[in-house]
Specification:
There is one protein chain. Helix 2 crosses helix 4 and helix 3 packs across helix 4. A three-stranded antiparallel sheet has the order 1-3-2. It is built from six helices and three strands; from the N terminus they run ααβααββαα. It is 65% helix and 10% strand. It is mainly alpha-helical.
Length: 118
């Protein structure tokens, strides 16, 4: 988190918000439960971050036609622009996190993290 904050602090976005925006950009549209699963967080924490992203105009939320209880999220143009702007700095923070490991170790480490999360 410290590396992300150092590299991306000027964009006024948290690592969680960045992860949610990225997941949403990849999906195009998703409900909050799906996004929570994508970033491996509980729905309550995810819902708060989504509200903050919506307040900033980075995402929109609409009621699902198929399930009136669900809210579907999608990135706004401003959200997509922010992702494009921050991408290089966020990638550099990611790379710096793993730089002490050899490439094979990096791959193994990431696989193990994914397994733990699952």
């Amino acid at each position: 988190m410290a590396l992300f904050t150092r590299n991306c602090g000027g964009f006024d976005i948290t690592p969680l918000q960045y992860s949610l925006l990225g997941a949403l950009a990849r999906r195009g549209e998703a409900d909050q439960t799906t996004l929570a699963q994508d970033v491996v967080l509980d729905r309550t924490t995810t819902a708060g971050a989504i509200r903050r992203l919506e307040t900033r105009g980075l995402i929109t939320r609409t009621v699902s036609v198929g399930d009136r209880r669900a809210r579907l999220c999608s990135c706004t143009e401003a959200g997509l622009n922010l992702l494009r702007s921050i991408e290089g700095q966020a990638r550099a923070a990611h790379d710096a996190t793993l730089q002490a490991l050899r490439p094979a170790e990096q791959e193994l480490f990431l696989q193990m993290l994914q397994r733990l999360v699952s």
